[in-house]
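Thread: Newbie trying to understand structure tokens

Hi all, I'm a second-year student working on a class project, and my supervisor (Dr. K.) asked me to get a predicted structure for one chain before our next meeting. I've only ever worked with sequences, so writing a 3D structure as a token string is new to me. If someone could post the tokens and maybe explain what I'm looking at, I'd be very grateful. Here's the chain:
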Amino acid sequence: MPRAKILIFNDGYQWEDLADLSSDQLDVTCVPNGNKQQLLEKIGDCDACVPNLRIKFDKEVLDSAKRLKVIASQATGTDHLDLKLIEQRGITLFTLKYDRDILDQVTTTAELAWGLLMCCARKLPECFDASRQGYWGRQQFAGIQLNGKTLGIIGVGRLGTMMVQYGNAFRMRVIGCDPHPKILPPGVQLVPSIEELLAQSDFISLHVHLTDETRNLLNAERLVKVKHGASIINTSRGGLLDEAALIKEMESGRIAAAGLDIIDGEWLEDKYNHPLIAYSRRNPRLYITPHVGGTSPDAVRMTARHNFQKVVKYFQEHPLG
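---
Reply by user tm_fold:
Sure, no problem. This is what the structure looks like when written as tokens:
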């Protein structure tokens, strides 16, 4: 029986952590920190691929993947994948989007969102930079006490619920708005519209999936309605936020600070000149991390094993003839 060729192209994988899940049916190649050219060179004779978020899985890649039967993405978001073309080609797609049994154990993204919120509230990166230079001033780094402030959460699902709990622990008033209303967790008050949430919130945190419906959810029209001096946190997807409008409102002072773990078009090679990255060099109150929300050794190991088990099961049920 021929062995299925699996290409693991996802950063953070340690093959020795997955080897016990494999079988004689699989021939596995692991390429850590690979680039798109390497992907194009290697994917041609592969039956399955575990992609990373840094490389767009587009028509060029799919045209090279002549034998591809399975894509197993170790993420909940899919903006790095050409979903329409994947479906047209009849390729089976696995993601973590609906795998609540495993995702409920992964808190890293919510923890980072809270860390970014703390940076916005207390100017922590500026404090670190100043102390490294031997500066020991206080007044210019005066921050915001969270107790009594309002945290607005857009998308009160798995991660949004964790943020509710963190906000409650810091004695904040927590309000929420969800594009798809559901049963809300205790400790959050539902508001009827995003506009009302923006007008009331001192800190706004985005926790929704990027879809055609939610793209530019916080557009220019909505950002001008943000409470003056508020901060925005986005650890979901860059496409949820009108980035040019964000820069404009930060320049005006309406938005005091922003903490982002993602940018729109993060798979592009020239990130140095991306408008948000460039603006962050001029405005120290724009804090950007390189999409590390889900990245910790324990979380990566847990989701990697769960994701790879899907690939193993697929080829157990669909052996190559």
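A couple of things are worth pointing out once you decode it. The mean pLDDT is 92. The chain has two domains: 4-103+297-317, 108-288. Feel free to ask follow-ups in this thread.
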